[in-house]
Amino acid sequence: MTLEELEKATNNFDQRHEIGSGGHGTVYKGILPDLHAVAIKKPKMATQRDIDEFLNEVAILSQINHKNVVKLYGCCLETKVPLLVYEFISNGTLRDHLHVQGPISLSWDDRLRIATETARSLAYLHSATLIPIIHGDIKPANILMDDTLTTKIADFGTSRYIPLDQSGLTTTVQGTLGYLDPVYLHTGRLTEKSDVYSFGVMLIELMTRKKPFDYMAIEDIILVEHFATLFAEGNLSQILDPQIMNEGGNIIEEIAGIAVACIKLRREERPTMRQVELRLQVAQSSKGFEANVNIVVDSSLPRDERIKEGLTSRQYSMEEEYMLSGRYPR
């Protein structure tokens, strides 16, 4: 697309057209000549890093076709850093809808559906694309909502391809503190399990309505550690959003167990996103039928070790996973 076309669409990038701003650029709403609404991402700076990240986002999004991932319509190459043009998502971000004033936020059913849609799209990125893709910055601010509160994952500037013959790659640490995988933060080694950790933090945020970066400053303990400790002690009511306590029913502990599994310190003990997606679907479907599960508790571990590792209470056999997955066409 031409720069002139995009300038006309945004009235020369008038501030009144601004709909969002982040570390990588400012997003404007634009109206194309055919009256089609689009979102246009304009870089804040023109460093080589900015150029690389915008080109990286073009390369990655052009390979993705998923209903829960924002679509890239085109780009403008007439500027030093490309301008990116996306589908316009009209209803803000998950952060906007979750952290509202007052005691009532998104319903429990909406939160579970949003979590499942996010897990499904991450599972797609990790295992269904030609080359596996790691998002690298999963958080509520990067989950867009349309008018029906359908999930659209956005902001792929820090995303990376993982070569098929490798399990991860070493790169400069990028992302958002509070959601970053501690292993990635300390080693620079980015893997699919880095997205799993970030998703686990987001799931805890959905259950508590507490922001991980704010929580540490208030409580002098990070949110994920406190959540895992209370889960192991059976005291989740101390940290859960009261609305969830009222609406969640008998699957609260199962969903909490999924979150705790995702934030385990040892990457090899975290589930895959496909497993997370399946467990979320099974947990929700348990409202209509009894799921056949085996309770597995390793009582040989000291209690402190169980808290540290964030052991979950449920495991499924491969046969059960196969049978259950057949209920949910992909």
From TrEMBL:
Q: Which residues form the Protein kinase domain?
A: 13-280
In terms of SMART domains, this protein maps to:
S_TKc
Q: Does the keyword Glycosyltransferase apply?
A: no
- Where is it found, in Gene Ontology cellular component terms? plasma membrane
Fetch the Pfam families from UniProt. Pkinase
Membrane topology type, per the record? Single-pass type I membrane protein
Instruction: Name the UniProt key words of this record, in alphabetical order.
Output: ATP-binding, Kinase, Membrane, Nucleotide-binding, Serine/threonine-protein kinase, Signal, Transferase, Transmembrane, Transmembrane helix
Which residues are listed for ATP binding in this entry? K42
The GO terms describing molecular function are: ATP binding; protein serine/threonine kinase activity
Note the InterPro entries from the entry. Kinase-like_dom_sf, Prot_kinase_dom, Protein_kinase_ATP_BS, Ser/Thr_kinase_AS, WAK-like
Kindly give the PROSITE patterns that the UniProt entry links to this protein: PROTEIN_KINASE_ATP (PS00107), PROTEIN_KINASE_DOM (PS50011), PROTEIN_KINASE_ST (PS00108)
Its BP terms in the Gene Ontology are: cell surface receptor signaling pathway
TM regions (residue ranges):
none
Subcellular locations according to the entry: Membrane
Origin: domain of life: Eukaryota
Family stated for the protein in its record: Belongs to the protein kinase superfamily.
**Family matches, as PANTHER family:** PROTEIN KINASE DOMAIN-CONTAINING PROTEIN (PTHR27005:SF534), WALL-ASSOCIATED RECEPTOR KINASE-LIKE 21 (PTHR27005)
Put simply, this protein is called Protein kinase domain-containing protein
Q: Which organism is it from?
A: Hordeum vulgare subsp. vulgare
